[in-house]
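Per reviewer request, we include the raw input and output of the structure prediction for the construct analysed in the revised manuscript.
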Amino acid sequence: MHKTQGRPREYRVVYVAVEGETTEVHYFDYVAELIADEQIALHVLYEKNGLKPQDTVDKILGDADDNAERWVMFDRDEHHEIPEAIARAKRNGIKVVFSHPSFDLWLLLHFTPFSGAQNGSSGVVHKKLRRQAAFETFGPHDKSLKGARVEALRGKELTATRNARKLTKDCATAECSEVDGHMDHCEPLRRDPSTDVWRLLVSLKIIDA
């Protein structure tokens, strides 16, 4: 075991409950490869046919160790209970990764900046993503994220992070900024477009941002 100043390093157990059953799960297979710190154990929770935002909180509360770090990941899409799900997660010490309109925005940001409110629709995001090599058929009926698609993302995490942080300065809540992120009083549904996936990658020591 590695030691720091004569003491054992803390072993971190991290649980993430995700909304989707395909794209997000495949992405975390890739993320597990990127985790260089052997003291971090990552567990991804999901269900066949997916979960709604409130369901991800239920999943974490039911299946994750109370002493572990707990995260939930869900999208705006057309869900209505997002503010309630975020508030409930925070009350229970669970960190939230929220994407508006969807997680697929995070994928797109690996290749190009993005802007403009989407009102919960991923149509434009998918259209732009399909212009990228290996993603030509990506969409509602082709959500896989393996093979050539993963390789197309590889090494572009910092680019995606910079593009995601730039979106914050355009938030409808004036106090939000690229440096400080979204304020606590910023309504989640106003964060259009946005994605917090990079915050989890920072926590997992995959990127330093």
